[in-house]
From TrEMBL:
Pfam family, one: DUF6941
InterPro entries documented for this protein: DUF6941 (IPR054221)
Protein name: Unannotated protein
Organism: freshwater metagenome
Length: 138
């Protein structure tokens, strides 16, 4: 996982703009979470469910205001990976993912963590923390 200003997937590759930061703000700015998932050979052609959650330093969901009231920052999806032609048996299959986010109103001077789960399971390398700069006092 990698934090970036923006990311996209094309031709099975991740294209990342402004990647590798861990400090942002304090004003809300667009961002992206770039993920390279490896699906084991025996897990191909199987439906998988993934979830990405934003948590505060205490492991609690981050809530943002919406027209429907405060909602947690979470993204979910499903994926199924086929076997590419010519791949050697037993080789894991790369699945690049780019999740672009609009500006999130995050509290300045705070630590946050993105947590990525597949089929309800934490993955090695499946969390990524960052901080927001303190608000400027004028």
């Amino acid at each position: 996982m990698l934090l970036a200003d923006a990311a996209q997937v094309a031709d099975g590759k991740l294209y990342i703009l402004g990647g590798g930061w861990s400090l942002t703000g304090p004003e809300p700015t667009p961002s992206a979470v770039a993920i390279k998932l490896q699906v084991d050979w025996h897990e191909t052609n199987v439906d998988h469910h993934w979830e990405l959650f934003l948590e505060d330093a205490d492991g609690q969901p981050v809530l943002i205001p919406t027209p429907e009231g405060d909602q947690p920052v979470e993204i979910r999806g499903d994926l199924s990976v086929g076997l590419p032609e010519g791949i050697i048996e037993g080789t894991p299959v790369d699945v690049p993912m780019a999740i672009n986010l609009g500006p999130l109103p995050l509290q300045p001077g705070t630590r946050f963590t993105w947590r990525f789960l597949v089929d309800g399971q934490d993955l090695a390398g499946g969390s990524l923390s960052f901080s927001t700069r303190p608000a400027q006092v004028i």
